[in-house]
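Researcher: Go.
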Amino acid sequence: MNAAEAYAWGVLSEITDPGAPCLERALEIAAEMAVHPPLAASAAKQVTTASTDAPRESALLLEQLGYAALNGAF
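Model: Structure:
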């Protein structure tokens, strides 16, 4: 899967232009993520890891369940 395909599938939230300072953008995103509760970051990492080899529908369900659990839906 190339970057354009990953973006189209929703795996990526953005693509930097060739030659753009992508490390700076990655650090900006990391700073935004760092203000969130550690449990939310941990859940996001676990869902990402578990979804790697899962079918797309299963991966999306894992994401939804993680979100619901963190927001007290259970």
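Model: Residues 56-70 form the longest helix (15 residues).
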